[in-house]
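Sample intake sheet
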Amino acid sequence: MLLIFDLDGTLFEAKDVVFKADHALLEDLGLPPMNDEELARAVGRGIYDFLRTILPAGFDIEAARSRYLEIVNDIIKDCGTLFPGAAEALASLNEDGHEIVICTNSPEEYTKTVLEHTGVMALVARFVCAEDYGTKAAAVYSLLKPGINAVMIGDTHGDLEAARANNMPTVAAMYGYGNKSMLADADFFAASPEEIVSCIRLLNRQNQNFAVLRG
C-alpha cells in the first residue's frame, strides 16, 4: 500500500519547536509577543497562513518567511524529535513492503530538515508540501498511483478532509494535535505510532480479503 503520512503532530513533535520559533521570530521582527494559546492555532497550518495572521499589514511576508525558516531549522537541529516509536513504526511499515510518503502543510526546507535530523529520510520515498499545490487534497492527489491502494495517516480534520476528497481510508493519530470530535470520522484510530502499524496491517488484510472475494 501507499502510506501517506502527515508530518507535524503525526510523526514529528512540532508544537514546542514551533512555539520557540514563533516567539523568536516575533522578537526578531520587533513585534509584540503572543501567548502559546494564540500560537497553538497555527500549529499544522501553512507558514503563509501563520505569517498573515501575526504580521501587520504591509509587512514583507517573503522576508519574514525566510527568517522564520532560518530560526525554526536551527531549533529543529537543536532539539527536534519524532514522537516516541514513530521511527520504529516507519521502519516496520517499510519492512512490510509499504511505500511511505509525506504530505504536509509545512514548507520543503522545514520538512527536509525534520526528516534528515530525525534520521528517517531513508524510509521515505517522497514528500510533497501542500503550499506547492494550493490545497492538501491536491497534494495528496499528486501522490496517488493507479491500481495502488492508499491510506492517509494524520492528526487533524484537514488530513481527513484531504483523504475523503480522494476517496481514501484514514488512520487518525489520536496522540497528535487534533481532538476526538474532529477525528471521529476516521476509519481507524491509533493511540500511538506503534498502533499505526497495527491499523495498517488490519487494513491490508481487509484489502486482501476483499480482493479474494471479488476474484
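Comment: The longest strand covers residues 99-104. Strands lie at 2-5, 99-104, 126-129, 150-154, 170-173, 188-190.
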